[in-house]
Structures are given as C-alpha cells and as structure tokens.
Specification:
- The complex is a heterodimer of chains A (508) and B (87).
- With 508 residues, chain A is mainly alpha-helical.
- Chain A is built from 17 helices and no strands.
- Chain A has a single domain, classed as Cytochrome c oxidase-like, subunit I domain (Cytochrome C Oxidase, Chain A, Up-down Bundle), CATH 1.20.210.
- In chain A, α9 packs across α15 and α16 packs antiparallel against α17.
- Chain B has a domain of 46 residues.
- In chain B, 71% of the residues lie in helices and 0% in strands.
- Chain B has three helices and no strands.
- The longest helix of chain B is centred in the middle third of the chain and has 36 residues.
- Chain B is elongated.
- Classes of the chains: A mainly alpha (508), B mainly alpha (87).
- The interface between A and B is large, with 51 and 47 residues.
C-alpha cells in the first residue's frame, strides 16, 4: 500500500525522490495548486462579464492577459500534470514493475514544470493560449510573450519525456506473465495518449521556435509583412492541439474505466472494445485539426475531408459511453463520490460530443465560429468530462495516497454544486453563442439576452467556485485528520481489486 | 467483439454519410448569401432535433440505469461476481 501522508516524511525526501509515488504526489499537489490559481482567474473573468462595460478589471489588455493565463494554466499546468500524477502513481503498480522505466528522467520531467509555470505566471502574456499571430509576432508586449513561449517550450519537452517513460514502462517493463491484452485500461489510456504526445508535440515545438525567431525579427514565417503566413501557424498549432484534446480526455476515460466497474461490482463489459476505442481515438485525433480553420478560406474538398475525419471520433467515443452503460447494467452500484463524478462526467461527455458534431459540420461551424458556442463546447469537454473524471479519480485514490478517508458528505456536495454550476455556465454559453456573442471580448453591447445569459453563466461559475472551496477544505482537513481508511476496501464494496495494491513498491 | 465492431461500423456509416451530405450547404462560390444562411439554420435545427432525440434516449437510459441499479433499490441483488469476490 502506498501511504505517503499517513507516514509523514521530511518534505525534502519527497521532493528529491525519484520513486514513482513520490513524483506522482508532487505532480498531484502542484496540479491542484494550479487548478485553484487558474480557477480564480476564471471567476474574475466571469465576474467582469456579469454586466456590460468595464467592471473591475480595468482594461481589455488585462482581461486578455487573464484569460490567456487561465487557459494555459488549466490545460498545461492542471489537466496534463494531474494525468501524469495518476499515471505515475498507478501505471507501474498496474504493470507490476518496481518504478517507472526511467525514474530520474521522470523526476526531471516533473521538475521542468514549476519553472515553466513561473514563466507563464510571471510573464502574464496577453495573446491567448493560441498565441495568435501576427499579433504575437508584431506587437504582443515582451518579455511576457517570450516568457510564455519559453514556458510552453519547457512544458513540451517535459511532456515528451513523460510520454517516453510511460510507453517504455508499459511496453517493456510490464511483468513477463502479463500480456499486453491484460494491461488494465487505465494503463492502455496512458499508452495511447503518450503515443499521441510523441507524434503531436514536436510540431508545436517547431512552431514555437519559428514564432520566437519571428518575434526576434530574424525570420518571417508567420509575418505577412515579410511574406509569411499566419495560417501556417494555425495548421501547426492545431496539428498539435487538436490531438492534445485527446491526450487530455483519453486518460480521463481511463480513470472512469477504473471507477465504474469497481462501484458497479462488475467487470468491465468489453475490455477489447475499450482498447479498440482508445487506439481508434488516437489515430483519428490526427484527422481533424483543420476543423478549427474552416473560416480561413480552405477549399471545399479540404473542409469535407476534415469534417469526415472529425466525425470519425464519434463511433470511438460512443463505444466508451456504451461500454460504461453496459457495465453498469445489472450491477449493484454504490454511488460514493468517485462514482457520482464518473457518471456525471459521462453524461456531460455525451452533451459535449453532441455540441462538437455541430462544430465539425462545416456549414454549421460558420454560424458558431469564434462565438461563445465554442467556449461552451470545449469547456464542457475539459470541465464536464476531463475534470469530472479526474476529480472522481482523485477521490478514488485519496485513501491510497493518504491512508485516510475524505468526508463523504462534502464530496457529494462538491459534486452536486459542480454539476449544477457546470450546466449553468457552459450550456448557457452555447446558447449565448447562438445569439452571436463573440468569444474573447472584454465588453459587450447591452443586449438584454446577452446580459441575462452572462449573468446566469457568472452565477454558475460562482457555484463552481464555492464547490471548489469545499473540495479544498475537505482534502486538506481529511488528509491530516480524516477517518483512517480500510485500505483493503476503503469504499466498502467487498471483493478485491484486480491490481495488487498490497505489492507496495519500496522507496529508494 | 466482432459483432460489436460491425455494429459500430454501421453506426459510423449512418452518422458520417448524412453529415457529409450537409457540406453542400456551403459552397465556395460567391452569392446566394441569404439562401445559404437559411439552409444552414435549417440544417442546424435538423441536426439539433436528431441530437436531442438521441440525447434523450441515452440520457434517459442513464437516468433509469442509475435509479434501477443503485444498491439501495428494493430489487437490487448481489452480482455473480460479488460471490467470487473478484471483478
């Protein structure tokens, strides 16, 4: 059993450790820290948009800086490191190996993230998480923009190192008695997402270098004044970051694959279809990047290809949803906090996917392009599916990390408030988009419908904020003073877990 | 497994082919702006009708599933796997 907090050790022992659970714990704590920082910016953004006109942020430039850092933080410094936390903790245990394949490389990959986070937060760039050229090249103020570019560069290298480690650990270090067809689906999800990272990230790494040299004036790849083309940057960016969506969502689905059978007291309905869907999602993730760019003057044929390529993700996603439903069918489901988050995540995954079909259908995309519909859609994915799966898994792993139980009532309240808040914010933003409100604006005209829907979304965001405060209090209090967990069966489900928690990997 | 893959292939074809048809709503040639907008919004509502129908079925199934197979339901019985203690 891995009990980091129940047997306290000096913090430096954990900080300088290369053991997979220690590195996992560091990832976990850091990612949660950035969750609250990025979330605080989200609340400020929503409060500013409560009414038309400047409220308290002051000017559009500051507003742009806030949503740039909000997006960058929650994607690169919360969701990705949180997935790495779970992977570090459980992948070696699941494949029955003593540690990650390269423990020192693993620690290096982690320790690259805090300086990158510092660069992003101390710079506070204003050019959106997309680093929009030609603005980012010609007039985005430095050194904030340069710090952001270097921060993302470091994060990219960290992701690649982490991905190599996961792939080698799963494929080469799994126990000789374990075939690849017996590797748990959570580990499969890390294998799939790590392969995507390896293929996708180098493209953006190149784009960042080109962006930097363009800013320095020594090249003009994306600078129209020097014969460059900003649309080329869009291709390079989305070739990396549409697959990146799957890098985030695939581990979250893998976490649901751990929770749902456990709490349904049944094995997963179809292991093979889960593996097949992960692999299929990994492949089709590369066939859809240009659906972000229908409005850039692509040819009809190109648009058609990418529309069909995007829709190809629907069957794979549906396979996961049906697998979850079939697993719960005829089960005896215990609705403890992790299960509530997982089921809520599936419900919102379906809604987010339905909105995505509209975005991918090119005639409809023209109506919703760059409106709040898009904001609602991707937030429903990252918050409603990825964060819901991740937070559910955090509750699930809590007794294994701390040796104590979280407060169940507070966990349930956290879920209910977050679920209501998520629906209020992001469903409303879809409708706001249909009413034509553009995204990334500091101020908006006093149209009654826009005001009303912005106010609903802001109230929803505040509800999520309250739920997150409850969550923070719960995990801090429970990790120190919570009830001691029965670490063999913390949720009272009966039965045994199929990965051997009792085989604690000794610290080194 | 094979039957499941077959089922999902059929579903994929059913989803992709009608969707590919929608692209003809937006050509690259200039003109016909008003007609195209009408067509696009018409398609939007058609797709939303389909989405809400499928959504209602899936969500309804999930809500019923959650209600019926919860452990506190009067008809809840241990699953066969609980007797073996492994799942």
């Amino acid at each position: 059993m891995v009990l980091e907090l129940q047997k306290p050790r000096p913090i430096w022992q954990i900080m300088f450790s290369t053991h997979h659970t220690d590195v996992g714990l560091l990832y976990l704590i850091m990612s949660l820290g950035f969750l609250f920082l990025g979330g605080a910016l989200a609340l400020a953004i929503r409060a500013e948009l409560f009414l038309p006109g400047a409220q308290f942020i002051g000017d559009a430039m500051t507003f742009n800086r806030m949503f740039t850092v909000h997006g960058t933080t929650l994607i690169f410094l919360f969701l990705l490191p949180f997935a790495s936390a779970v992977g570090n903790y459980f992948v070696p245990i699941m494949v029955r190996y003593k540690d990650m394949a390269y423990p020192k490389l693993n620690a290096i990959a982690f320790w690259m993230i805090p300086p990158a986070g510092a660069l992003i937060w101390l710079g506070f760039a204003d050019f959106t998480w997309y680093a929009t050229p030609p603005y980012s090249i010609i007039s985005a103020p430095g050194p904030a923009a340069d710090m952001w570019i270097f921060g993302l560069k470091i994060l990219g290298i960290s992701s690649i190192l982490g991905a190599i480690n996961f792939i080698v650990t799963i494929l080469k270090c799994k126990h000789p008695d374990m075939s690849i067809g017996q590797v748990p689906l959570l580990a499969w999800s890390f294998l799939s997402s790590s392969l995507i990272v390896l293929v996708a990230i180098p493209t953006f790494a190149a784009a960042l270098l080109m962006l930097l040299t363009d800013r320095l004036g020594v090249s003009g790849f994306f600078n129209p004044a020097m014969g460059g083309d900003p649309i080329a940057y869009a291709h390079l960016f989305w070739f990396t970051f549409h697959p990146e969506v799957y890098v985030l969502v695939i581990p979250a689905i893998g976490m649901m694959y751990e929770i749902i059978p456990r709490f349904s007291r049944k094995p997963i309905f179809s292991y093979n279809s889960g593996v097949f869907a992960f692999v299929l999602l990994s492949v089709v993730s590369f066939s859809s990047w240009a659906h972000h760019m229908y409005a850039t003057g692509m040819s009809f044929t190109e648009k058609t290809v990418f529309m069909v390529g995007t829709l190809a993700a629907v069957p794979a996603s549906a396979m996961h949803v049906f697998n979850f439903i079939a697993t719960m069918w005829n089960g005896r489901i215990k609705f403890a906090t992790p299960m509530m988050w997982a089921v809520g995540g599936i419900a919102l995954f379906f809604s987010a996917g339905a909105g995505g079909v509209v975005n991918s259908a090119m005639p409809l995309d023209f109506s919703t392009h760059d409106t709040y519909w898009v904001v609602g859609h991707f937030h429903l994915f990252v918050m409603g599916t990825i964060a819901f799966g991740s937070i559910g898994y955090l509750y699930y792993m809590f007794p294994y990390v701390t040796g104590r139980m979280y407060n169940e009532k507070l966990g349930v309240i956290h879920f209910i408030l977050s679920f209501i808040g998520t629906i209020l914010v992001f469903f409303t933003q879809h409708i706001l988009g249909l009413y034509g409100m553009p995204r990334r604006i500091f101020d908006y005209p006093p149209i009654p419908e826009w005001i009303a829907m912005n106010q609903i979304a802001t109230v929803g965001a505040m509800i999520i904020g309250v739920s997150m405060a409850i969550f923070l209090a719960n995990i801090i209090y429970s990790s120190g003073k919570g009830k001691i967990a029965n670490t063999d069966d913390p949720f009272g489900l009966g039965g045994k877990y199929y990965y051997p928690f009792e085989q604690k990997n000794p610290h080194h | 497994m094979t039957s499941m893959v077959g089922l999902f292939l059929v579903l994929a074809v059913l989803i992709i082919i009608p969707a590919a048809d929608y692209v003809f709503a937006a050509g690259d040639e200039p003109g016909e702006y008003v007609d195209r907008r009408v067509l696009i919004w018409n398609l939007f509502f058609r797709m939303m009708t389909v989405a809400f129908t499928v959504g209602a079925v899936v969500s309804g199934t999930m809500i019923w599933l959650v209600w019926r197979f919860r452990e506190s339901h009067p008809k809840a019985t241990p699953t066969p796997y609980e007797k073996e203690g492994v799942w």
